[in-house]
C-alpha cells in the first residue's frame, strides 16, 4: 500500500523519509528533481531550478511529475511505500494513497528548521519563511478535509516516524 506523508516546508518530511528508510521501510523523498519540478503556470513549461523572480509564488508551481509518480504508485510491491513530499498537484494522486499523514509544526519550529537545514536551499531566500507560514493554515485545513491523520512533527524525529508506522501497523 502507498502512504503519503506531507506537510509544509520545514515540517520534517525528508527527515522522516530517511528514518523510515534506515529502519528498512520503503520510503521516497518526493521533493527532489527525480519526481518533482518547477512549472510555469501560464505555459506549463518546466524549469531546471527554482525561479529567482520576486513574484515566483504567483507564477510557478512545484509539481510532481505525473508519469513518474503514477508509475511509482501503480507498481505491485511486497512492502508499503511511504512517499514524503508536497506539491501543488498532489491532490490528483490522493486516490492512489491508502492513507495520508500531515506533519504539523508551529511557526517557530518551521523558521528554525528552514534557516538551519543543510539538505535543501528552500527557506534561505528573503520572503521564503513568510510565504511558507502564509500557506500553512490553509494547507493544513485542506489536508484535514481530505482525511489526513495529523502527526505532531515537533516530537523527536524517531517518535514522529514511529507514530506513522503505528497507524500503518494497526491496520493488520
How would you sum up this structure in a few lines?
The protein is α/β, with parallel strands linked by helices. The protein has helices spanning 13-22, 56-59, 66-74, 107-116, 128-145, 157-169, and strands spanning 2-6, 26-29, 36-40, 46-47, 60-64, 81-84, 99-104, 149-152.
How would you characterize this protein structure?
By secondary structure, this protein is an alpha/beta fold. The chain has a single domain (2-32, 79-169), classed as 3-Layer(aba) Sandwich (Rossmann fold), CATH 3.40.50.300. The chain has 6 helices and 8 strands; from the N terminus they run βαβββαβαββααβα. The chain has helices at residues 13-22, 56-59, 66-74, 107-116, 128-145, 157-169, and strands at residues 2-6, 26-29, 36-40, 46-47, 60-64, 81-84, 99-104, 149-152. A 5-stranded parallel sheet has the order 2-6-1-7-8, sandwiched between helices. A hairpin with a 5-residue loop joins strand 3 (36-40) and strand 4. Helix 1 packs across helix 6 (157-169). The model has no long low-confidence stretch (mean pLDDT 86).
